[in-house]
Write a structure and sequence with these properties.
4 strands, Toxin_SymE-like, mainly beta, RNA binding, Toxin SymE-like domain-containing protein
Length: 58
Protein backbone atom coordinates (compact mmCIF):
# COMPACT_ATOMS: atom_id res chain seq x y z
CA UNK A 1 0.00 0.00 0.00
CA UNK A 2 1.37 3.41 -0.95
CA UNK A 3 -0.29 6.60 0.19
CA UNK A 4 1.15 10.00 -0.65
CA UNK A 5 0.03 13.02 1.34
CA UNK A 6 1.24 16.55 0.84
CA UNK A 7 1.74 18.80 3.85
CA UNK A 8 3.68 21.88 4.91
CA UNK A 9 6.19 22.16 7.68
CA UNK A 10 4.81 24.57 10.26
CA UNK A 11 6.58 26.24 13.14
CA UNK A 12 6.16 26.00 16.87
CA UNK A 13 7.40 28.56 19.35
CA UNK A 14 9.40 26.85 22.11
CA UNK A 15 10.68 28.47 25.28
CA UNK A 16 13.42 27.06 27.45
CA UNK A 17 15.05 28.43 30.55
CA UNK A 18 17.69 30.18 28.48
CA UNK A 19 16.02 31.20 25.22
CA UNK A 20 13.00 30.96 22.95
CA UNK A 21 12.84 30.06 19.28
CA UNK A 22 10.72 28.67 16.48
CA UNK A 23 11.26 25.00 15.61
CA UNK A 24 9.90 22.96 12.67
CA UNK A 25 6.64 21.07 13.24
CA UNK A 26 5.00 18.34 11.14
CA UNK A 27 1.42 17.29 11.98
CA UNK A 28 -0.02 14.00 10.78
CA UNK A 29 -3.53 12.75 11.47
CA UNK A 30 -6.19 10.79 9.68
CA UNK A 31 -7.67 7.39 9.06
CA UNK A 32 -4.93 6.72 6.49
CA UNK A 33 -2.48 6.34 9.41
CA UNK A 34 -4.62 3.63 10.98
CA UNK A 35 -5.07 1.95 7.62
CA UNK A 36 -1.27 1.87 7.25
CA UNK A 37 -0.79 0.14 10.63
CA UNK A 38 -0.41 3.17 12.93
CA UNK A 39 -3.30 2.57 15.31
CA UNK A 40 -3.77 4.74 18.40
CA UNK A 41 -1.22 3.71 21.02
CA UNK A 42 1.12 1.99 18.56
CA UNK A 43 4.80 2.51 19.36
CA UNK A 44 6.96 3.54 16.44
CA UNK A 45 10.56 4.31 15.62
CA UNK A 46 11.55 7.48 13.81
CA UNK A 47 14.70 7.73 11.71
CA UNK A 48 15.82 11.18 10.56
CA UNK A 49 18.02 11.53 7.49
CA UNK A 50 18.86 14.56 5.37
CA UNK A 51 15.60 15.46 3.60
CA UNK A 52 13.81 12.28 4.75
CA UNK A 53 11.89 11.00 7.78
CA UNK A 54 11.14 7.28 8.12
CA UNK A 55 8.46 6.20 10.62
CA UNK A 56 8.08 2.48 11.34
CA UNK A 57 5.28 0.96 13.44
CA UNK A 58 6.71 -1.50 15.97
Amino acid sequence: MEIFRKTKISKRYVRTTWNAKNVPLIKMQGEYLRDAGFKIGTECSVKIEQGRIIIIAL
